[in-house]
Amino acid sequence: MPVYRMKYIAVIISGGLAGLGGAALVFVANSFKEGQTGGRGFIGLAALIFGNWRPGGLAAGAGLFGFADGLQLRSRTAVVALLLLLALLLLAVAVFQTVRGKYLQAVLAGVFAGLSLVGFLTIDELPSGIVSFTPHLITLLVLSLASQRLRMPKADGLVYRRGEH
Question: Does the model's pTM come out above 0.70?
Answer without folding.
Answer: no
